[in-house]
User: Fold HTH-type transcriptional regulator YusO from Corynebacterium comes.
Amino acid sequence: MTSSTPADIAARIRPAMTKLYVMYFRIAEQSDLTGPQLSIMARLQAQGPSRISQIAREEGIRMPTASNALHQLEQRELVERIRDEQDRRGVRVKITRLGESELERVGEERTKYLAEMIGTLGEEDLARASELADIINKLADSYGSDLIDTNTG
Assistant:
């Protein structure tokens, strides 16, 4: 019987997660947007215009890193800077229509590649993977909130 402590589970799945992550991004590399850039764009799409400091905090990155990523996205017209309505001296960043369509295109492309990977499973494993999808999403949601809470608290 295998042990099921968090450390034991992590030790069992970490090498496979790393391998799958690397393979997934090699396959999905047709977009020249980085994972962090896509994450920022998805956050802007979900939350609306945000200050750079807020983006950095919520992404768990430093301000210069966020500024650089946003500058690159702005150069490609995927995001734009707008005046902060509450503080006229401040600037917020918002995703553009082009950014939204690029985010959708890349998302569909990557979903297709991930589906191809998952499609190699047999019927029984596919059913188990379907059950695990909810757990993986729950883990991603709770980990993301914990990260945000620690960076703001």
